[in-house]
Amino acid sequence: MMNPLFLLCGQETIPVQTDLVYELEYDQITMRFAGIHNSLINDHYLILQFPTQLEHDAKILGDGFQMLAQTTGQVDTPKDLGRCPDNSASYRLYSENAKKRFYNYLVIEQSDGFILFGFTSCHRFSGYFEIHQYQGEMNVMAFLDGEHTHPKDWANNQMEALTVIKANSLTEIYELYAAKIQQNHPIRAGVKQDAPVGWCSWYAYYSDVTEQNVLDNVDVMCDEQKELEWVLLDDGYQAFMGDWLTPSDKFPNGIESLLRAIKEKGKKPAIWIAPFIAQPESELFKNHPDWFVRNDNGDLLKAEDITYGGWRCTPWYILDTSKQAVQIHLTEVIRTMREEWGVELFKLDANYWGALKGTRVQSGITGVEAYRLGMQAIINGSGDALILGCNAPMWPSLGLVDAMRISDDVERNPERFEQIAQETFYRSWQHRKLWQIDPDCLTLTSLPNQGTERKYYEFHRNVILASGGLALSGDPLSELNSFAKKTWKNLLSRLRLTQDSAQFKSLSNRHCTLRLNHQHELHCIFNYEDEPMEHTLVADQPSIWRDFWSGEQLNEEPMQMLLLTLEGRLSSRAILVSI
User: Fold this and answer.
1) Residues 469, 548: one domain?
2) Percentage of the chain surpassing pLDDT 70?
């Protein structure tokens, strides 16, 4: 017999699987499998139906399975944000021709407020939503990706949990949603700590980074940029992908010696590692071919067989983290870096590949479960070091990282600045609720082969200003010009007052506000269109308005409103109001 209909926040909710037991508690529906059969659970397993009254031009926001995927636009015309949708020809999580999937959560902004459909757990299966026309009305459908597993192979019969939330503001809807997620995935201690402020090697030198490059930048941090505390050694230090304890010949004195020198100069060492992949030239792969995920036919699985193959040193092979020996290996590598090398922050990259589907030694384990096992093995070796996820599967990482990259890699051009602005703003609500957000590095100076105009750097710095979270310079610090130095001085002043993210009132991402202290409020305004835009700022009382960066006073007498005109084609302003 079919389970009864539920009301979630007044939303009609129809169970559709007779093999599931549905339970409603504290505005969440949990599910457990109670079927007597052992039929395969595929990647499009419908669990709930939500008949809805949606405006066809309502704004939408849907998350992606992995960091590089989000969906915006309108109900009738969804639009991919970013370069790498989950159903692109590169990533291939599902067919390009299939109905658009909104992983993790779907937010809809209508004339009467906001509604959010969201999964509040991700222990074994990823969840997603689709919008369908059904019997003359729109329906939001909820699915689980069962990864073609069989119930008898599962460790238990518990599925995932989800909720529906209605509210008049984005701030309220995200507060309520985050609280429900935290019930299922408690946050790590680092989520509430001060976010790292420092320098990262990647966007200054990429994989060509040398030992001397790092030491030169640390010298600048000890002289002109004393408030930059963290030094993140990114990709390029290792001999091969997979051999993380073996340095390349660009680091003749070894990584341990370099990190010790960083610490002796009063800075905090951090390191990049892609823990779940290995290239065929690595000793790890040569010595332990039985440690890797396989295809259905028993051959070793290359990432490119089923998804994007990786950005360098390919082909990538995927560690089978369901295997105890692999878990021990990961713990030992991380523990060596933490206890012997002194690493205080781990940037874990290419995490998405750790959740790929494939044949593992544990029968019936999903990619999500295997990924979480691998992350736990890393946590077991990391001690009190911070863990930053990057290129990660989003909801499978819940409760497992202190910080999370939420946007694509920065590049010094207006198109990428705009893209990562939108990606960051759509996920900035997660800051200090699920993890600290990492909007990627602040780049303010041009390289010989990569650069743009001042106005676009000004836009980019306003994005970082609004974001809060991690603040890492991606420039060669010796090449910072007066504009870049002044930017860092003002940005650090803001971060000393609060590291919270500014709040948007609409999915348009045009205007956000942040209370800095009891006397000052920050307004950031963004124009993404080709045409100029007028915008009116309103204070609670007559106030003095100033440009945040220059300090210029914009009104002679206290005024309650300020009218601004922003240029077309990617412009922005940061305005400080004295209350």
Assistant:
1) no
2) 99
